[in-house]
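Aim 2 progress update. The chain analyzed this quarter is reproduced below.
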Amino acid sequence: MAIFAFSIIIALSTLGLNISPFLAGIGAGGLIIGFGVRETVADFAAGIMIFIYRPFKIGDLVKIGGVEGEVITISPVNIELRAKDSRKILVPNRSAWGQIIYNATKDGKNIIALQMTVNADTSNVEEIVRPVFQQFNVKHRCCLTGVIASGLNYTIYMELPKEMCVEVDQIVRNLWLQMKEKNINATITLQS
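Predicted structure tokens:
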């Protein structure tokens, strides 16, 4: 078709017809189409980069820019996430590739972080929280991350199999009860 169209343009030109306005119209049309597909082309190019570097895979728990959820599909132009409330979120690939991507999944397990503040006079927090994690058979790491006037800040990282992610609330509750049983005032929040 391109050869046929080019042949017609040459034939009209040899007949003495002024084809400059026609060529300008084709150029303007090409410019309009170029602007129209610019974002789709950017999405596709970013999709290729995502397929090459694989910063996440289907099933991973990710945070991309301001949205987070489980990766459901990765297409050449967008990423579909399922939010915690089961909403469907579509993230254009160009937006995902241009953002910081937090992947909370490692070896098929989600890494969940808890922030815990306890009384300043509390010692050996690791020994106090260990029975709760043993009860749920969850690997964890407890790190002292700060000292404030009212107490000590700890970050607890948990490795949860994907099927256990619904039990995070129960783990947090049991941690709080364990602290209360030891007469320790604790504030526990889930980091996002």
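The CA atoms of residues 64 and 101 lie 5 Å apart. The chain is about 40% helix and 35% strand. These observations will guide the mutagenesis experiments scheduled for the next reporting period.
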